[in-house]
Each structure stands twice: as C-alpha cells, then as structure tokens.
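quick one before i forget lol
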Amino acid sequence: MNSLKFFVIVLMINAAVAGELERNKGLSVHMLPKRVAEIANQASGFVVKPVNEPKINKTFKTGDELVDYFKKLPSEVQENGIWLVTTDPESYEAAEMENLKKLEKICSEKKIPLLECRASKLPNGWKRID
C-alpha cells in the first residue's frame, strides 16, 4: 500500500512540474491604451514583440487577431501561453476593456493559457485566467 501512495505522489509531482508555464517561452504581449498610444503616435491594442523579429512590434486591435497570430506560432510557444501585461484599468476606454474580456473568453474557450499581470505588480503578480 505504501508503494502505491509513493507512486501516486511521484505522478502528481511530475504532472505539476510538466504543467508549469514559462513566460520566456510563451508570447509576451502588452495592452497599450488608446490615449497612451496617441501620445506616442503608435497604434493601440495588443502589442507583441516577436522573438524572431526583436526590432519589430506587431499590434493587434482585437483578441481574435491576437489569437489568430498566436495559433501560427511554434507549438512550444503555444504550450506556454499568452503573457499579457496591462496598466491601470482606468487608462483604458470601455471598448478596450470589452476587448480584454473578449480575449479572456476566447482563450478560455480554446483552452489557450492566458496569464495577466498589471505592470505595477511585475514580476510576481501573474494570474492565470481560465
């Protein structure tokens, strides 16, 4: 009986370790508010700096566009999810917050790991959105 308990514990530990997501292997995204983007003369939305193109930012207006892009990335990136940094919620317009909620819904429905953190809570404030 003790060997069975030991075996179950080992399986649980292996599953926990195998299931850990790594930010540096996932897709890093910043949600840039419209009014901040206008000041910087940039596009607002979900801003991605692709690993293979570090000098280029890609901006996606909607969660659908971001997820379409994400689904074309290598499987290792997809397995480690989308890591979204946001700023103060009051910085976003109502439509932008709706867009965030839509992204959360899409990721939940498609079983895409989505982790969010407010910039002021980095590096340890990550919360998984299910």
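fyi Residues 21-129 form one domain.
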